[in-house]
Specification:
By secondary structure, this protein is mostly beta strands. Helices cover about 5% and strands about 50% of the residues. The strands form six sheets. Strands 1, 2, 3, 4, 5, 8, 9, 10 and 13 form a nine-stranded antiparallel sheet that branches. A three-stranded antiparallel sheet has the order 15-20-21, with no helix packed on it. It has a three-stranded antiparallel sheet with strand order 17-16-19, with no helix packed on it. A hairpin with a 5-residue loop joins strand 8 and strand 9. The mean pLDDT is about 90.
Amino acid sequence: RRAKIMPSGINFEEYAGVRNLVIAPMVIGADGTETYGAVQRLSGVQAVSGEVNESSETHYYDDMAAIVVDSEGEDTYTLTVSVPSKKTRALIEGLTYDEATGALIGSKKNKGYFALGFIGGKLNGNDEYNWVYKGKFSGGAKTHNTKTDGVEATNMEYTFTSIHSGTKFTKGGNAKYLSVDDDGRCDLSTFFDQVTSPDTLTPSTYALSITEAEGTTVTVVRNGITLEDDAPLANGDVLTISVVGGTITVNSTSFT
């Protein structure tokens, strides 16, 4: 019997769960500047399924395959959701909502661009936070069935077609989306308070905490600069710690 050799350094992960489906209307200025309105819930979400549109073509020279030309198109997200409010439907479908009566009016459609956000669950507990920066909605057909002796309720399905942002971010340039795990490396407490960009996503910060035994001397250095207790730290910081005379604790880790 042969022993199974597992590859090292690989984390086996699977998706399970989805929640917090939100949208933010995009406002495009006369100069092409893209900004966003307030973030709001779309509705309850049952499933988010993405599809990437890519193609490639091989060019041949001197009787051999010499060049592969890549082409990237739109991304599409299929959203299975609970029935949105009529006001939300009017917003994403480009229809008219009558504030006085609460009625949805099937006027000629005038659709705008939106950002789409959601949280995708993972079995390892590190949920995935997502913003898709620019796209339009389609779909939204309804099904009404007669009641029977069983329970058969229906929901709705939309397609969100995503393209690259017109905004050229410092990190990543023109981007379709931002996806980050809730693994402690970033501060995600305000991720959905607004549309978070690659440039506004910030690492988590901590305060340096040093506990030293009597008669012990410790020096903590970052990038050639000696740090004092309570100095701010961020994920990815490399610290050089020198200890003389005993044991110390730096942010819950002991050194001698």
